[in-house]
Amino acid sequence: MKAYQHMWRLIRYRPILYSINCITWLLIHISPIIPGLIVQQIFNALPHEKQLSYGLWMLIVLLVVTALARVMLIIIGGLVDSLHRFSISGLLRRNLLARILERPGAQAVPDTAGEAISRFRDDAEQAEDAISWTLDSLGQGAFAIIAFVLLFRINARITLLVFVPLISVVALAQAAGKRLEKYRQASRSATGQVTSMIGEIFGTVQAIKVAAAEPSILAQFQQLNEQRRATMLRDRVLEQTLNSTFGNTVGLGTGLILILAAQAMHTAQLGVGDIALFIYYLAFVTDFTQFFGMFLAHYAQTKVAFRRMVALLQGATPTRLTEPHPLYLAKKEVPTIVQPPPNEDNLHVLTVKSLRYHYPDTGHGIDDISFSVAGGSLTVITGRIASGKTTLLEGLLGLLPRESGEISWNGQIVIDPATFFVPPRSAYTPQIPRLFSATLKENILLGLHEDAAQLQGALQAAVMERDLTEMEHGLETLIGTRGVKLSGGQVQRTAAARMFVRNATLLVFDDLSSALDVETEHLLWERLFAQATITCLVVSHRRSILQRADQIIVLKDGRIEGIGTLTELLKTSQEMQRLWDTDISV
């Protein structure tokens, strides 16, 4: 889709609000027509009046009233425009976020998180400006047309010269369009790289300090900032050069027009009031000329913004970007969160047949994975590093798009695993749990309605009673960015409580107990296994978990090397024997 097509869809998103905004700003930009005519009448009357007559006083009062009316219109226009602007950028960000949440969780964004933030922030704002600027273009254009008609009736030759700079401005804007797009693309990309690195630094402060890597990290950060400075400077210099060129072109044209107007006045072709009208209207017409050139340059940059946002849709049709959806801007409009109904489809057997996925960049992945998980059992996936354990879980849950294979739940084929394997059917904790800068309770509930008994049960199952007594505010304790105020074990158990509070039938853990001490881990599993209806699919190397397992799946180079109990695999699987003998699990 072209940029103007996206803009048209955004205009149609809230047509009534856009129409009100358009009418308001049309009146704001047209309103100077009236003061100009009043000024013309005042100056035409002055040579014939020896003192301020009643008529002149009425014209002066009318001039003040129109000025006050315009001020009120500007205030109203500002309020309406702010709401309309927020609606436009809000819709774009809402649709981008919805698409990201639809994507496989492990491939949510195509680039870095910082690059995605740049598109959410800067590119949506660019599109918002483009829509708002159409109102100014329409308003100032309408003023220019009306002014042209009025001035043309006074002096055709000078009036035609008023609009000559407009032709030059349009030609300059068109000539610089491609370069504007190129520089804007480079500056946005450089900004995304800087934002990404800031996020990575904040997320890995401990690792940086342990490795004493502060100087190298700062050097790299300075290098990225220098690249951003250079690209932003080129972008801004070109933009300001064009603006100044537009302004100077208009200024030269204005000077020529004033000279011709003075000559016309000298030859009595124009009266004092006519000259005043020309000068008064000329300021607004020249503003329109310069603004129109800036709008054309801005439109070229807006093309880049829409291309970058469409790329974030990752394969969805471009119309998804501007697809109309309600925005809940008032508290009373916000819909209540619908709690998922209790799961009545208890798991009897989960079957995976010929599951396959490979990472596009490396070619590594999983091949021909087939197994079954019985309801109420514990299945452990184990293997060496990079054997495909996490990839298997993510492919099963729909966090990675499977290339082939079939997944069945109680004999029924699962068409879309990403929407099927969610609470209360299943819950998942990744290898590195993600917590938010909020309270402990908010991190566990994540929007669920608070049920005191259910929450207490989840905390008890996650062995967090002692931790809560040591926290200053208990469940209301703010845990900091990504849970920085918690220990590694507390982070893992908070993620576990988040799973338990959802009462899911299938619990999927990716090395949940790696940061737990032996006593806490033992207690956690004891409490979990006390619930006979729970089915667990776990990635682990721990001997205690392997000994408890009803079934162990041994992976090697992305394939299943063996399936069975620990006793069976220690007899039949060389890979299991090697893992056990090297004692990699503690």
Description:
The protein has 586 residues and is an alpha/beta fold. It has two domains: 3-103 and 110-323, ABC transporter type 1, transmembrane domain (ABC transporter transmembrane region fold); 349-581, Rossmann fold, CATH 3.40.50.300. 61% of the residues lie in helices and 10% in strands. The strands form two sheets. It has a six-stranded mixed beta sheet with strand order 6-7-8-3-9-10, with helices on both faces. Strands 2-1-4-5 form a four-stranded antiparallel beta sheet. Strand 7, helix 18 and strand 8 form a beta-alpha-beta unit. The longest helix has 53 residues, at 214-266. The two termini are 57 Å apart. The model has no long low-confidence stretch (mean pLDDT 84).
Measured distance between first and last alpha carbons: 57 Å
What Rg is obtained from the alpha carbons, in whole angstroms? 34 Å
Strand order of the largest sheet: 6-7-8-3-9-10
| DSSP, total strands | 10
Structural class: alpha/beta
The outline comes out as elongated
Mean pLDDT: 84
Low-confidence stretches: none
Secondary-structure arrangement, i.e. CATH architecture of the largest domain = Up-down Bundle
Top CATH class of the largest domain: Mainly Alpha
CATH superfamily of the largest domain: ABC transporter type 1, transmembrane domain
User: Main sheet?
Assistant: 6 strands, mixed
Number of helices: 21
CATH topology of the largest domain: the name is ABC transporter transmembrane region fold
Proportion of residues in helical segments: 55-70%
Number of domains: 2
Report the β-strand fraction as a percent range: 5-15%
